[in-house]
Amino acid sequence: MVERGALLGPFYQKILRELGESFMPGAGAFERGAKDVDLENLFERFGKGFDKITLLGFKLMLIAVNYLPILLLGKARTFGKLSPEDQNRYLEKLEQSKIYTLRGIFTVVKALLAMLIFSDSGMEKSIGYELLCHPAPGIKVKSELVKQSRDIHSDINEHAQVCVIGSGAGGAVVAKELAEAGIDVIVLEQGGYYAQEDFNQRPIDVIPVLYCNNSSIFTFGVPMVALSAGRGIGGTTVINSCTCFRVPEDVLADWEENYHLKGLTMKELSPYFQRVEDTINVHPGEMEIIGKNALMTRKGAEAMGLSHGPISRNTRNCKGCGMCNYGCPEGAKQSMEKSYIPLALKAGARIFADCRAEKIIVEDGKAVGVEGSVLERESQKPRYKIKIKAKVIILAGGAIPSPVLLLKNKLANKNGQVGKHLRIHPAARVAGLFDEEIEQWKGIMQSYYVDTYRKEGIMFEATGLAPCVGAMSMPFFGHRFKELMARFKNMVNIGLLISDSSEGSVRVGLGGTPLITYQINQKDFLKTLKGIRIGAEILFSAGAKMVFTGTRPFPVIESREEIEKINERLIKKTDLEYMAFHPMGTCRMGDEPAKAVVNRNLESHEIKNLFISDASIFPTSLSVNPQLTIMAFATRLADFLSKERSRYL
After folding, report:
1. For residue 2, is pLDDT > 60?
2. Which fold has domain 153-217+230-247+268-285+314-417+609-642?
């Protein structure tokens, strides 16, 4: 049992355990069940990453699941008092409920239980999973030059030529490039500082410190979409899949024609892409370590005559550990804390972790500084004040935090465009069960693409998952779920990314937190269904015996003939489980001030010397993973400021 003061008190722990033992019973496909797992302590390890509102929401869901048998079964009993047969009948009603909210509660509770249960080392052994990385002990790579909360003992007042807010793909790159040009730069990062020595290959421990709110940021809309974003020095680059694509030329052509960006072509951008690619060593994934998840995807694509290839990645000496989403334990991944941050420090940049920017100081229509708080790492409570006076402010917090900060400050929004036009690349997944062992967690994590349908807005990327993550979206519960997980090592997983025309918005919500609204439109819904059909065809063509579609009416199909069931007549938007990893567009770029937040040089149309360097500037979806394009535009911004230093600095 956990100690007093736990995140879940005894009442909630009891419900969690009763549900867990029904979701994952003992015996059957393998002996171990939830009764053999320390669910309470596993929740303590994972739950510390939830904010207070999300934790409260989960407690309310536990209460709902505990007492809903009274309504759904007509029995005045809580869940734990039901017979095993009634528990199964009740959970089936929740899983298949026509009421989206009830089904959503079931999905969230089941996903969290799956994460906890398959984070247990004994459960991992039961399905044949083992860690692949064995880094040398005692590795220490973090720089003492990065100032953390523990290093700060009083208020901070500093001056610099440039203050950068955020240290991810946009912030770290622009800071390094400016510092190497001899410009005095300070970087403020709200999150902590973590590096190779902190990445223990356990998602249950790493997600709470590297992901915003345990990867549990949800859009309001039907259906809801779960968004993932990183936090800390390096931002989302620390936890992304190393995938590197240049923005396609047809996307740039669209921006030229429809978003007032004439002349913004690949010819202009190519030198900046090349500079980034050289710095972070972008190259196609090595076939000798790519893994069977990729090879089976290739087999299916070849059988169908589709365009395909290994994904280009930012790594050095990758060993194919499959841990990219949880910080690279081998130090091979060239994320910002490994690449651009050390180079920025070497060039003289000053970097502060655990420092939240709260106010952008504006005088006479010009940004001149930043005020904020130094945060205690664990509690996120303010300890000291920080104030930076600077001639240029670069906002690089990401497509959710950046508009929120501007809206809180009532800046750069006279045209009402800040926080609008949110795109997210909504994603779904298909998985195939094969006779042979695949061990999708072995090899490169996001390894292989199929891009035949990219211009239609559908991109396929083979992505191997650790069992505790893969289990979260597998269908069913009880022994049926257990039987599937016993064969998890025989599964191939393919993600599909939708280039969305749907738009959402970001506003300031309760307690100053982001309020994100987003509705999947019919066009993107139909793209998703087509993507699932094609993904299923790829898997069957590679030899899959059954395919998991991620749809409620048809979670499993066992033949090509069944693929046609995946259509809009039989499936609704709310029958799909969407996720997203690429928010963008909320401070869009364009040369027409009435329709854009920043110009082509990424300077605010309204506030002089205020620039934005993150995915919020993109006018539309990119149709490919955005990190490389964010970095290229950040390099271009640094080049502009270096050339125009007499004007700005």
Report:
1. no
2. FAD/NAD(P)-binding domain (3.50.50)
